[in-house]
Amino acid sequence: MKLIITFAAVMAVAAAQFPGFGPLNIPQYVRPTIPPPPPPRPSPASISVSRVSNSDQNANIIRYENEIYPDGRYKYAYETDNGIAAQEEGVPRDFGGNPPVRPDVAQGSFAWTSPEGVPIAISYIADENGYQPSGDAIPTPHPIPEAILKALDYISRNPPQQKKK
């Protein structure tokens, strides 16, 4: 009997150091509820100009897709009535190593209309080489002037001589 009382006292002292974990406050797992998928919506090409919202605050989602597969692949897409759209697909790629390295390799695109009314579209891939975007809206460097190209060519053909001391 003394052993049971001693054991109960030790358990009470051990449980007292974790506030909020009393016998009536055990945290329970609550399964999140997933809303049903929205009804099918028209594709981006079929959206008329009159449907496009002028206010980003009042934009509504008109298409939403999100799929996650047991093997780690995923894909998502969404579109709003103010002209914003995005989509991405990803898959884990095994690079080996210890511990194993399994980053996601993703590719996708996003698009919107600028305040000037110009449609902007960017596509990208993100893999072991980093994030690689492409699109007309991404700035590109100016071409190298002809004189600089000639100078670089001359230097590559005639490297400077090392001075002897």
Describe the structure.
With 165 residues, the protein is an alpha+beta fold. It has one domain (36-155). The protein is built from 2 helices and 6 strands; from the N terminus they run αββββββα. The protein has helices at residues 2-16, 146-157, and strands at residues 61-68, 74-80, 85-92, 104-113, 119-127, 130-134. The chain has a 6-stranded antiparallel sheet, with no helix packed on it. A hairpin with a 2-residue loop joins strand 5 (119-127) and strand 6 (130-134). The termini are far apart.
Compose a concise summary of this entry.
Residues 32-52 are annotated as: Disordered. The chain contains two helices and six strands; from the N terminus they run H-E-E-E-E-E-E-H.
By DSSP (H or I, 4+ residues per run), the number of helices equals 2
User: How many domain regions?
Assistant: 1
Largest sheet: 6 strands, antiparallel
What's the alpha carbon Rg, rounded to whole Å? Answer: 30 Å
Strand content: 25-35%
Q: Ranges with pLDDT <50 over ≥5 residues?
A: 42-51
Order of adjacent strands in the largest pleated sheet? 1-2-3-4-5-6
Q: In whole angstroms, how far apart are the ends? A: 96 Å
- Average pLDDT score: 77
Helix content: 10-25%
Shape descriptor: flat
Oligomer description = single chain
- Series of secondary-structure elements, N-terminal to C-terminal: HEEEEEEH
Secondary-structure-derived class: alpha+beta
Q: Tally of extended strands?
A: 6
Signal peptide: 1-16
GO cellular component, one term: chitin-based extracellular matrix
GO molecular function: structural constituent of chitin-based larval cuticle
Pfam families: Chitin_bind_4
